[in-house]
Amino acid sequence: MPKRTDLKSILIIGAGPIVIGQACEFDYSGTQACKALREEGYRVILVNSNPATIMTDPEFADVTYIEPLTVEVVEKIIIAEKPSALLPTLGGQTALNLSMDLDAQGILKKHGVEMIGAKPEAISKGEDRELFKQAMVKIGLDVARSHTVKTMEAAKEAALQLGGYPLIIRPSFTLGGSGGGIAYNKDEFEGITANGLDLSPVHEVLIEECLLGWKEYEMEVMRDHKDQCVVICSIENFDPMGVHTGDSITVAPAMTLSDKEFQLMRDASFAVIREIGVETGGSNIQFSIDPDTGRQVVIEMNPRVSRSSALASKATGFPIAKIAAKLAVGYTLDELQNDITRVTPASFEPTIDYVVTKIPRFTFEKFPGADPTLTSAMKSVGEAMAIGRTFKESMQKALRSLEIGATGFGGGGKHGLDEAPELDEIRSRLATPNTERIFYIRYAFMRGLTIEDVFELSKIDIWFLHQLREIYEMEVELKRQKLAELDPELLRRAKQFGFSDVQLAHLLGSDFPTVRAHRKEVGINTTYRLVDTCAAEFEAFTPYYYSSYGEENEIMPPSGKKKIMILGGGPNRIGQGIEFDYCCVHASFALREIGYETVMVNSNPETVSTDYDTSDRLYFEPLTLEDVLEIYQQEGCDGAIVQFGGQTPLNLATDLKANGVNIIGTSPESIDAAEDRELFANILRKLKIKQPANRTAMNVDEALLYAREVGFPVLLRPSFVLGGRGMFIVYNEAEFAAVIREAFSVMPDKPVLIDKFLEDAIELDVDCISDGEISVIGGMLEHIEFAGVHSGDASMVMPPHTLSAAMLDVVRTATHALAKELKVIGLMNIQFAIKDDELYVLEVNPRASRTVPFVAKAMGIPLAKLAAQVMAGKTLKELGYTKEQTPKHWCVKEAVFPFARFPGSTITLGPEMRSTGEVMGIDADLGIAFAKAQAAAKPGLPVKGNVFLSVKDADKPGAVELAKQLADLGFSLFSTSGTAAILKENGLPVTRLAKISEGRPTAVDMIKNGDIQMVVNTPGGMIPRRDENSIRAASYAHNVCIMTTISGARAALQGLHALNREEMGVRPIQKYKGNVNVIG
Predict the structure, then answer these.
(1) Which backbone phi and psi does 975 adopt, to 5 degrees?
(2) What is the secondary structure of 759-817 as a DSSP string?
């Protein structure tokens, strides 16, 4: 059946900000769906609160709303746009839950909006634990024994009936297993269950028999309304049951299933998707198998495009989200063509003749105090994927793609030490799932443990352990050799086992250039193979490659066009996320527009940059010198862009240039000059621009001496890091002593920078573009919090809202001078601080920054696209962009934090970045724009209720005025002794609460009981005291609006006043285009 003609416009709900459990894989799926539906002539209406994604660029949908994802806001959009249908399955759990709320409240019915892709009944059946269990039993499929409960009493009864611990607790309708866990005793059971009931939006958890040690699999399945079903990809978890699939190493296709087991699982998958009733689109179904008895159970189903769908798409080349969108509007699988082969239909199941490995990326170092054990609640912030001819090759490539200092499975690097740790430590690390368990398998072999020993401790399948053992044996063999005498066949086998030249250099006592030259001399060259969806049965037309060491090289012949390589950002992590991928995608589109062929290199399966049709050629490869050089030389590229992918490609820039790579745009020398303390200080002196007093220390003793010279408080930061890793503001010598070693450990052998910290200064981010002749400021963003909060975590306002016109002119002069002096060609970001009407430069980054997408959305000007064309030789005059513009409307950026995922960690804003994502509020009124940003970041500002205030001494005068206005707005005030006394002195009605050490009831009790609607809590020192932290943790866990800076609380007050004045309206970003003032 061809597409439906009764549908005219389709509303797509995006996934909102990047959070743990829901990352940029939904940016990728939403972008694909928007393209697919517009291709079919439908009017696409998109709502998403995330400015950092490419999907919220104005050209991807007909109408784009960057608005909070709430029922009230989406109803207003439905009234304004009158969509025929809502597609809920492409924005993760956020879109699914919101769509279900719209349906339950009768809003879709009231406005005549049909839900397509998955009906509400199917979503309920797939998501509701009890309904799903009943459906599985009905069709004769085995499920884990379980009980769905809504109270603690029922949970205890369920535990008794299931008989014995451990037990798994799974909350309903939460993201990435949030609130769930494994309980080994009654105390843990009650704690996890209470938290799970709290976090579940329907106050429901599933208590399930624990299948710890069982094997876990996923099937990515699609179905159309003709009841045609296909398996796109089977995925096997390397880690056994007990680790959330998002935190597990996963391998595609499934490696340890017999053909019979696979067919049984395939049949079961089709039975599940049919019974649940997903008529059109994709679903992810998880299974588990008892390795001892072969018992197979269905674990759960996602009746939507999921995190694994992105992995399956990149692993096979099959565009799941695109096909899902087309099935939702009436097409059938046999009517849709496979874009890669151009001859097979989408009903033709993909077959792959290679192995794909995905490894998650974690950032526990950002959350001291958090438990790093991997459980059923997801904790990873990103992932790397690699493709190889064998599991060995794929695994080694994936390990070096992670960018955590590992060169592979052994062979030097941070996790491939030549001396193994003690046996007790190895046993402990193998028995408890953790981020480094894969490396401890090698250490176990080094200490003489057998494959069976490792299996007994870890329950990782014997087949995987055999493969890793063979890599280890190859390492042992290589260590006995010398490069000059090495048998070329052994070298070839080592390369086929995934060993990089860097690993080989370590094992053979040589260096990288020598090994590389020797390998080429003996004729062992890298070959590239196509990802073609059909195991080479049909010709592939999309150049999507992975490297290997076989005979056949499938690189397509040159087209005659000039080629530019774009280096991506690798796996997402805190400090380097989707914003950089956004810039890489824009670079690809922009260069194609002016006649260049683009070659994208990246290892991140979640992103739009690794979609098969974003660039002319895509290489799914690790971002290391060896891998990048090989592609550059074999493709015959004319230049490379390193400034768009964050710190990852920048770290390669100097070595790439030394090896003959033409780095286009700002030179590596200029990038280094901005990073190098001495060179940069000389530039600022020459330009007569101030910077805070500073020193560079090479060791701990020197650091203390310099800190005394500069004078406390000081800012400590390692050089050459992104995301503020290892940065601290210290107010005295005791705090300094507590953290200085950690600052040095972040980048060993690199200096630590010591700056005078400018207390209560206003920070300003400036994004600028330059072509070498003229420079134009793209946007200025004033931080709401005072200096000291990392720019990635700070709330920001564009245009600046408190700085004078005279000061902004001083900023402009300094910006243009720095762009000229650093010979910037492309983008540059500067962070300024203003204190006592003096301007200081904190840092300059001559590259794309994380604020670029936000500025582009605020202005309606594609900064990254213009920058890419400037780097390729165009002038700003040619591109028609020579004057600075500022918006007449207000744009507020708010950060989103994962503290609820890391119980026990310190909850504070500081110089080290901790946010995973961001949202945007846009409005003609600054207060409403702030309220929108807060509503999008969740929880929104309350308009009535109780406020708890507890502030440090320096903030108490400000807190009085704040409390007075809150009382005037009708809020009731609650405080602990110190703040309460000040408020009472000033005649304000306040209820005094006990401090946590003084008895009950406390603020935490009131928060847990739902009696506090907003918290204002500012810390006294560098790290919040334990009682402050427990108040903050309770606020995050119970979705209570919290402000941890007095300036943030003032902005919230502005938002509250605005909400009292007027209702929040909605407006698409296309209507803000041109709403600007031109400067100069």
Answers:
(1) -150, 165
(2) TTPEEEEEEEEEESS-EEEEEEEEEEEETTS-TTTS-EEES-SSS-HHHHHHHHHHHHH
Q: How confident is the model at residue 990 (pLDDT cuts 50, 70, 90)?
A: very high
Q: 0.90 exceeded by the pTM?
A: yes
Q: Measure the CA–CA gap between 1014 and 1012, rounded to whole angstroms.
A: 6
Give 238's contacts (C-beta < 8 A, 6+ positions apart).
248, 249, 250, 251, 357, 438, 460, 461, 464
Q: What share of the chain is helix, strand, coil (3-state, %, to 5)?
A: 40, 20, 40
The dihedral region occupied by 509, where left means phi > 0, alpha psi between -120 and 50, and beta the remainder, is left
pLDDT digits (tens, 9 = 90+) for 227-243: 999 999 999 999 999 99
C-alpha to C-alpha distance for 384 and 402, rounded to whole angstroms: 6
How many residues in the chain? 1080
Q: pLDDT at residue 1057 above 80?
A: yes
Tokens of 422: 């003690």
Is residue 169 classed as helix, strand or coil in its secondary structure?
Answer: strand
Q: Is 60 exceeded by the pLDDT of residue 373?
A: yes
CA 62 to chain centroid, in Å, comes to 27
- What Å distances lie between residue 482 and 173, 226, 417, 506, CA to CA? 58, 63, 20, 11
On average, the pLDDT of the chain sits at 93
pLDDT of 930 reads 97
Which residue type, as a one-letter code, is found at position 645? Answer: G
Q: What is the pLDDT of residue 179?
A: 81
3-state secondary structure of 588: helix
Answer yes or no: are the C-beta atoms of 415 and 405 closer than 8 Å: yes
Query: pLDDT tier at 370 (50, 70, 90 boundaries)?
Result: confident
Share of the chain above pLDDT 90, in %: 75
What end-to-end distance do the CA atoms of the chain give, in Å?
58
Other CB atoms within 10 Å distance of the CB of residue 50? 27
Nearest by Cα to 348 from 229, 227, 226: 229
Give the side-chain half-sphere CA count within 13 A for 13: 29
Strands in 355-361's sheet, in edge-to-edge order, are 296-302, 281-289, 215-223, 229-237, 250-252, 355-361, 382-388
With helix as H, strand as E and coil as C, how does 2-71 read?
A: CCCCCCCEEEEECCCCCECCECCHHHHHHHHHHHHHHHCCCEEEEECCCCCCHHHCCCCCCEEECCCCCH
Residue for token pair 């009231």: 110
Checking if the pLDDT of 929 tops 90, the result is: yes
Q: Max CA-CA distance within the chain?
A: 88
Two tokens, residue 6? 């009764």
- Classify strands 114-115 and 85-87 as parallel, antiparallel or unpaired: parallel
Picking from 416-425, 622-631, 724-733, which range would have the lowest pLDDT averaged per residue?
A: 724-733
Q: Which of 320, 308, 307, 230 is nearest to 270 (CA)?
A: 230
Query: Do residues 896 and 913 lie in contact, with contact meaning Cβ atoms separated by under 8 Å?
Result: no
Residue 64 has pLDDT above 60, yes or no: yes
CA-to-CA separations, 344 to 39, 338, 347, 348, 543, in angstroms, rounded: 20, 6, 8, 6, 17
Alpha-carbon distance of 503 to 495, in angstroms, equals 10
Cβ atoms 416, 409 nearer than 8 A = yes
How many angstroms separate the CA atoms of 282 and 266, rounded? Answer: 14
Instruction: Determine the Cα–Cα distance for residues 64 and 55; give it in Å rounded to an integer.
Output: 9
Stated as kind and residue range, the H or E segment containing 909 is none
pLDDT tens per residue across span 993-1006: 988 878 888 999 99
What span, in angstroms and rounded, lies between the C-alpha atoms of 104 and 93? 16
- pLDDT (mean) for 456-482: 97
Residue 873 has what DSSP assignment?
T
Which residues are CB-neighbours of 649 under 8 A, at least 6 positions away?
A: 567, 568, 569, 623, 641, 642, 643
Q: What is the dihedral of CA 754, 1022, 405, 412, to 10 degrees?
A: 80
